[in-house]
Amino acid sequence: MRRVRWDKRPPLPARSVQVDYDSDLRPLAWVMTVSGAQFSAADLAAGQGRAVQTAQGPGTVIRGGRLKDVLVLPDGKGLRLLTRGYVTQLQPALLPAFAP
């Protein structure tokens, strides 16, 4: 796993952004932690989200667009975005959120 973090001038409207990813499966297996996000899960889903209940609380699975099959979980300080590939490999307790 590799990590990239932006505390100064993050690429999103937020206080900081951190991405942890599998260097071999970068487009498929990653988690993004957005602290102080100035947007919501609904903003990211753009009308293509499905509300889900997970082992870590309520979340949203995005069903289309560039973030298709990404689970968005609020964490008190911001948002966590997790791909299905990341969940499959590292947090399988969240996998039922992707079931239709």
List strands and helices in order, with pairings:
Layout: E1 2-6, E2 16-21, E3 30-35, H1 41-45, E4 49-54, E5 57-62, E6 70-74, E7 78-83, H2 84-90
Antiparallel strand pairs: 1-2, 2-3, 3-7, 4-5, 5-6, 6-7
Question: Keyphrases for this structure?
Answer:
single chain, 100 residues, mainly beta, 7-stranded antiparallel β-sheet, 2 helices
Radius of gyration: 13 Å
- Report the structural category: mainly beta
Number of helices: 2
User: What's the shape?
Assistant: globular
Strand order of the largest sheet: 1-2-3-7-6-5-4
Helical proportion, percent range:
10-25%
Instruction: Work out the strand percent.
Output: 35-45%
Terminus-to-terminus distance: 29 Å
Describe this structure in words.
The structure is a single chain. With 100 residues, this protein is mostly beta strands. The chain has one domain. It is built from two helices and seven strands; from the N terminus they run βββαββββα. The chain has a seven-stranded antiparallel β-sheet with strand order 1-2-3-7-6-5-4. Strand 4 (49-54) and strand 5 form a beta hairpin. The longest helix has 7 residues, at 84-90.
